[in-house]
Amino acid sequence: MPEESTDQPSDAITGHMSPEEFRRQGHAAIDWIADYWASLDDLPVRAQVAPGDVRHLLPASAPEDGEPFDAVLADLDRVVVPGLTHWQHPRFFAYFPANSSPAAILGDLLSSGIGAQGMIWATSPAVTEVEQVVLDWLAEALGLPEAFRSDGPGGGVIQDTASTATFTALLSALHRASGGEARRHGVGGAGWRVYGSTQAHSSLVKAAIMAGLGEDAVRTVAVDPATQAMDVDTLHDAVVEDVGAGLRPLLVHVAAGSTSTGAMDDIAAVAEAVRPWGVWVHVDAAWAGVAAVCPEHREHLAGVEAADSFVTNPHKWLLTTFDCSTFWVRDRAALTGALSILPEYLRNAATESGEVVDYRDWHPQLGRRFRAVKLWAVLRTYGLNGLRAHIRSGVDLADHVAGLVAADERFELVTEPALSLVVFRLRAGDEATMAAMEAVNASGEAYLSHTTVEGRAAIRLAVGSWRTTRADVERTWRALQEAAAAQA
Ligand SMILES: *Cc1c(COP(=O)(O)O)cnc(C)c1O
Q1: How confident is the model at residue 1 (pLDDT cuts 50, 70, 90)?
Q2: Domain 378-487 has CATH 3.90.1150.10
Q3: Which residue has its alpha carbon closest to ligand 1 atom 8?
């Protein structure tokens, strides 16, 4: 034993906070967040910086000697805040919301404080078992089939994103359809086919690329021009044609709320159309799925009993700080069959007993955070009634916006509002539509994003921030009206 061992083995390391300092700085960090939220209403929603502006405020190299943590907090205000687009701003209506919430943030902080790696059950049993229970709770709350629960053949897992969940679904489908061949020999030249509508999220193509199928393996299926939902007869014809050509239908992506317009593919009809070929049915409800906590907002999930896998993102509209994407499978054997790996250094009695779930076999990566804590914190502190109230408020505000659009003859709805998403345009055309949106975004009053529907530009207004009120949507609408008037 070396003689000079001391009670403070880290004496030589500067920068470690003492427990007292950690408490002090922790309070300051939470104070900073609370002050930031309080300031949001007066800040421009979209970042006002040009490329490089933020970089230029930072030194070229890391400091040689440690600085106090207060210096980092001070630079958040000086360097970071001006370069932020404020996703938690009450007038953020672009893309889809990325809800954070006080409970989720504290849960996330606790997860960091615990700092456990939950790669297998044995590396921290609570990380796995809390996650299983919380996902069972959420599956029940959303009205998902019994088969998806952890006490049945399936189960749920938290993924980082819906993109990863869709990739994982594709790997599971490959394993099942190839009888294990895919994991042994790869997929080269096997003629696999993946289907999704023209409105399927881009993560489907990315998954096909990552799985080694290539983007040409994805066959896009036309949609009904009015609803933007997949044309199921066209899907059926495409599968029949592919089978006739010697190709192998593998997976169909069902958009239960498309990203562009919130279009809802008919899950039951899609599953029925591909049933003869045993195609894996993956329901992508990344944004809209969580609305099913409200029994009256479950219609778009009708037929989900026929799905092989299902993903929805509490990190979009369910108040759970990014990242938290919840993914369920009907049969976990396909998933673990595709991804299980057991290196010698992870061998343990619990795994060998077969009595535990090792989540490393449920997604591409090995290591994993204790993300269940933040979802647990959200589910417990809001309760299902609190979450329902949040979803209902988003839907009500979107209905209000849709009414305002319909009442102004300069504007028109492009599609029927879907839950909390309203898609509309100026009758004057694409240029006027884009110019009005850009005027509002540039003013900092609110932030909206665009899409194209049947080749024409449209504005998307997605309600869902936890801080948005009726006054916020009305103020945004007035800004849009003024922008439209300025063009006339
Ligand atoms: C947002 C979205 C995704 C991607 O979500 P990530 O979690 O960012 O990967 C996938 N599908 C749909 C329908 C989405 O709206």
Answers
A1: very low
A2: yes
A3: 161
With a 6 A CB cut-off, is 259 part of the ligand 1 pocket? Answer: yes
Q: Where in the chain is the domain with CATH 1.20.1340.10?
A: 20-87
Q: Does residue 200 carry a pLDDT above 80? A: yes
State yes or no: pLDDT of 2 exceeds 70.
no
pLDDT on residue 344? 87
Closest atom of ligand 1 to 255 CA is: 13
Q: Mean pLDDT throughout 73-93? A: 96
115 conformational bin, left if phi > 0, alpha if psi -120 to 50, beta if neither = left
The answer to whether residue 188 scores a pLDDT higher than 50 is yes
Name, in order, each residue with C-beta under 8 angstroms of 147's C-beta and a sequence gap of 6 or more: 153, 154, 305, 330, 331
Q: If one looks up domain 20-87 in CATH, what number appears?
A: 1.20.1340.10
What does pTM read for this prediction?
Answer: 0.95
Mean pLDDT calculated for residue range 286-300: 98
Looking at the chain, the whole-number percentage of residues with pLDDT higher than 90 is: 92
In whole angstroms, give the CA distance from residue 230 to residue 223.
4
CATH code reported for the domain at 116-369: 3.40.640.10
Q: How far is the CA of 323 from the centre of ligand 1 (A)?
A: 12
Ligand 1 atom at shortest distance from the alpha carbon of 259: 15
**CATH 3.90.1150.10: which residues of the chain?**
378-487
Where do the CATH 3.40.640.10 domains begin and end in the chain? 116-369
